[in-house]
Design a protein that fits this description.
Layout (H helix, E strand, L loop, with lengths): L2 H8 L11 H8 L3 H13 L3 E4 L2 E4 L1 H19 L4 E7 L4 H5 L3 H11 L8 E5 L4 H8 L4 E3 L2 E2 L4 E2 L2 E8 L2 E8 L8 E5 L4 H4 L7 E5 L1
Antiparallel strand pairs: 1-2, 3-4, 3-11, 4-10, 5-8, 6-7, 8-9, 8-11, 9-10
Helix pairs in contact: 2-3
Length: 208
């Protein structure tokens, strides 16, 4: 968590612009005025804060990030589940190829307990839920080890057990992907789109 964002939150900058100097920020954070000024400028450039006539205000992006950290910590301490909804989107066909490889299929069946359908269900997260992907990636994964064949070397995959509309599945995160950071790939024993009667644009619920 960014300490400066947290400090601004404690001063109420999520509710109203707060008048506070970089010297005061530095003093309260145990850093020099120069470092505090530079960090504040970085947060402004990244869209986490903005300067108003009345002072410094946390933006929607800054508040969302802080809320995400709070929810992640709350879930970790209380053992809660991560729940979110997303939109079904088309993939690039990568999942079908990789999940057809025996080097991955045998491990998935052994470690997750099911033979995966050769294809993934791709879900685009809502902007407000993007932090949940980072929370998922912070959990302990089931590691599907990479391997080599006569053609190339394949990297590790990280799997996280989940349920989609009540069906036991897994979020699959490859080390390299062409998908954006807002997309999650789900694997299951079935063609989830067909089984759940979903199409591109459909809303779908996931619990990790």
């Amino acid at each position: 968590m960014d300490e400066m964002l947290l400090l601004l939150l404690r001063h109420g900058a999520h509710l109203r612009p707060v008048r506070i100097t970089s010297s005061e920020l530095g003093s309260q954070l145990g850093m020099s005025q120069q470092n505090a000024s530079r960090r504040l400028l970085e947060l402004e450039r990244s869209g986490h804060v903005e300067r108003k006539e009345g002072g410094i205000l946390l933006t929607k992006k800054g508040c969302t990030e802080l809320a995400g950290v709070y929810s992640a910590l709350k879930a970790a301490f209380e053992g809660g589940k991560i729940e979110f909804e997303g939109t079904v989107v088309s993939g690039l066909g990568e999942g079908k190829y990789y999940l057809s490889l025996q080097g991955y299929r045998k491990q998935i069946e052994a470690k997750l307990g099911f033979a995966p359908y050769a294809g993934t269900l791709n879900i685009r997260l809502d902007e407000a839920d993007l932090w949940k992907k980072q929370h998922i990636l912070g959990l302990d994964p089931v590691i599907i080890r990479g391997f080599k064949d006569e053609k190339r070397t394949y990297g590790d995959l990280f799997a996280y057990r989940c349920s989609v509309e009540g069906l036991e599945c897994a979020v699959l995160v490859p080390l390299r992907t062409h998908h954006g950071p807002d997309v999650l790939e789900i694997i299951a024993p079935w063609d989830l789109k067909r089984k759940l009667k979903k199409k591109d644009g459909s809303r779908i619920r996931v619990v990790v």
